[in-house]
Structure formats: C-alpha cells, structure tokens
C-alpha cells in the first residue's frame, strides 16, 4: 500500500513538472498595431527562421490583388502604403509540428507618392534587421521589388 | 467500561468489514469485462514505431487489450473498462484503415503531441503499468516518424492554380448556430503560423475583447464575447529563397467564447467553414467534442493554441 502511495505521489509530481514546462503567459507586445491597414498576404521561411505578414492600405491591397506576371515599382500608383512585418519563427510550445511567430524583428514600410517625373517610391525599416549603410541602396531596391511582387492571399 | 467500549468498537469494525466485503463481491461479480473484437485493419508502420505503440498504446487503443489481473479487480475494473471503451472510440489501431488516410496522419500528430505533453499514456495507467511509459528517445522516434510522413506528403506544396473567390449566395451557418462573418478582416492579427505537420499557413485574428484579454493577461478563463478567427491556406512549396507562401484557401475556423452556452466544450463554441464555398463542418453538434478534446492540450492558455506567448518567468 505504501508503495502504491509512493507511486501515486511521484506520478503526480512528474505530471506537475510536465505542466510547468508548458506554463505560458500571453506576449501581447508581439501583436502589430496595423492602424486600419488590411492584411495582403503572409509567408514564412525556415531558412531565415522568420514569419511575415504584409499589410497595406486600400490602394496597396488593390494593387496586390491584380493579376499580373511582372510588377515593377514603375507601375506603382501614388498613395500606396505597404508594411511588411517580420517576426521570429519558433516552434509552438503547445503543438509539436506547428511553428508560430515570436517577437517582432522588423517593420519595413514602402510608400508611393507622386513626383514630377512619375511615382516616387520610399522605403524605410525599423527594427533589428536594418542593413548596413553600404549595401542599403541596393538592398532597399531589392526589398521594394520583393514587397511589390507579393500577390494578395485569397480570402473567402 | 473500557472493555465495553472495546467490544463496541470491534463490532462496528466487523459490520463495516462485512459491508465492504459484500460491496466488493457485488461489484466484482458485476464487473464489466473488456472483450477483444477481431483485428480488422491493423496499423502498419516501421517496426521501431509499431513496437512503441504496441507497448504504450495498444492496451486501450486496440482490440488487443492485454489486461493484467489487477485491472480486473473491482472497483478498478470499472475505470479500466470505461477507459478502454473511450480510448477505442477516439482511435483504434486494430481498425486503423477504416479512417481516411488524411485523418490517420492527423491522429498520429495528435498522438505524438499527447505523449509530448505528458497526457498519454494516462499517468494513472503508467503508475500501475510502468513499462508502458514512453521514453524521451522513443518520443523522438515517433516525432521523426510523423515528420517524415508529412514531409513526403507536403513536399510538393499546393501546386494547383490559385482559385479566386466565388460568390457565396447565403451566409453559411454551423450546426451549433455560429454564422460566418467577414468583420474579422478589420480585427488585429494576433499570430501567424506555418504548419509543416499538415502543409498549411495560417493567420489568426482576435476581436477587441480577445486582444484586450491578452493585453491584460485575463485568459484563464477568456471573457465572454472573445472571438478568435483562423484563416487557413494550403502552403506552396518554398521558393528559391525559402519563402513558403499561401496557395489555395483551405478553411476558416472560428472560436466563440460563451461560458454558459458552450459549457460542454469548456466555454468555447467551435465552427469551421471549408473551401471557398464555406461548407460548414460537422453533421451533428457533437463534432465540437473532437475539437475540445484536442484543444485540451492548450488548457494553460485557455484552450487556444495560437496566441502569442512566452514561458512564465521570461
């Protein structure tokens, strides 16, 4: 009988320990305040260990929803605002097999305004992913092209 | 005086022992027996995987229950018989092929996650059947197994041309009364997930009540009125840079918090609408039982899997 009690006590201790490692608290600081922008699309990348959501205003969403094969900054319309939010990607502590976003890594913003000789595309980034100044111009152009190339996800 | 007290005490013990013994005999005689129906379509997997499952799961989740003598002693025999009956209902390795292939894969992930969480095999079962415990090394074998199946299955990604939105003539409604709605598109994204286990990509939205509950750390329990919406797409294969983008729309899932109305499922109402025609899932309201069974794994976060979290103390 004593043995049985000991077994039960150790079993419940083991169970309690197990629960502790899954003890989680909300991390609302990772929620991005979109200020009314729409979700355009999302993607994740196991190589970089990141997950991203692309947001945009009405014009940006309309742009990303259009059928097209190639899309260049040249055919952007003034008024478009894109924000690409990138988080760390981590294993969901509650489900082996699912990966979920962790902390925000960077927020990239692309805005299109009207210039004298056509649309002016502006790029800025905040967060830990800022590129070194030397490569900034080239990589900014790449990032703008990348963001423009995203097609809107189909929602019901 | 003392002798009289002693005598009375002895009588009481004798009567109590008599009552207990009679109860035991009645319980034992009427004790339920666990039958082993024929094995019709057994689970087949790699030998090392099958060996673990046979040792740790088959006593309850198969038609090859190997009960020990002490499993047949009342009152424990009642609990054992009830557990086996429930276990076989959830899934049965002896009738494995009677469920669709996709469901089999989902069940295997569920099994691995239940073991990972320490919920299976049942701790009260391993306390009396220590050999049924799954060791960390064995869990790794199982994890690698399910990962390899899904990798094979979803390597190509969703290659079909992406379908655009058709017109849905009426508002689809789940059998439990939860109606599809579009307001979630103006809600905040609370998390996003990539699921190598089932080849999907997801965005999860929360209404104001849900977001405020997360901000105030008031999710145990979540407040009534909190609603969480999950949009699911099939993942495409990774592009040259490794980006996995959403392909075709798969389904949308809604969790509605109403502690009273959905008391049977821990206060959450579940709904799922599949395909661009938003076909409601579930023929009877009991479909939600399988939802909450799995969501029990997320008990620590109020039964919601996909919220932003960090470990306590970090």
How would you sum up this structure, described in words?
The complex is a heterodimer of chains A (156) and B (314). Chain A is of the alpha+beta class and 156 residues long. Chain A has three helices and six strands; from the N terminus they run αβββαβββα. Chain A has one domain (35-149). Chain A has helices spanning 2-21, 58-65, 133-149, and strands spanning 24-26, 38-45, 50-56, 81-91, 99-115, 118-127. With 314 residues, chain B is an alpha+beta fold. Chain B folds into three domains: 1-27; 47-154, no CATH class; 183-301, Chalcone isomerase, CATH 3.50.70. The longest helix of chain B is centred in the N-terminal third of the chain and has 28 residues, at 2-29. Chain B is globular and about 90 Å long. The chains are: A alpha+beta (156), B alpha+beta (314). Strand 2 (38-45) of chain A pairs antiparallel with strand 4 of chain B.
Profile the largest sheet of chain B.
Answer: 6 strands, antiparallel
Beta strands of chain A, count:
6
Spatial order of strands in the largest sheet of chain A: 2-3-4-5-6
- Provide the β-strand percentage band of chain A: 35-45%
Number of domains of chain A: 1
State mean pLDDT of chain B (0 to 100 scale).
Answer: 93
The percentage of residues in β strands of chain B lies in 15-25%
- Fraction of helical residues of chain B: 25-40%
Q: Helix segment count of chain B?
A: 9
CATH topology of the largest domain in chain B: Chalcone isomerase
Number of domain modules of chain B: 3
CA-based gyration radius of chain B: 25 Å
Mean pLDDT of chain A: 84
CATH superfamily of the largest domain in chain B: Cytochrome P460
Oligomer: heterodimer
What's the CATH architecture of the largest domain in chain B? 3-Layer(bba) Sandwich
Q: Stretches of chain B where pLDDT falls below 50 for ≥5 residues?
A: none
What is the SS-derived class of chain B?
alpha+beta
Tell me the distance between the termini of chain A: 61 Å
Can you list the strand order of the major beta sheet of chain B? 1-2-3-5-6-7
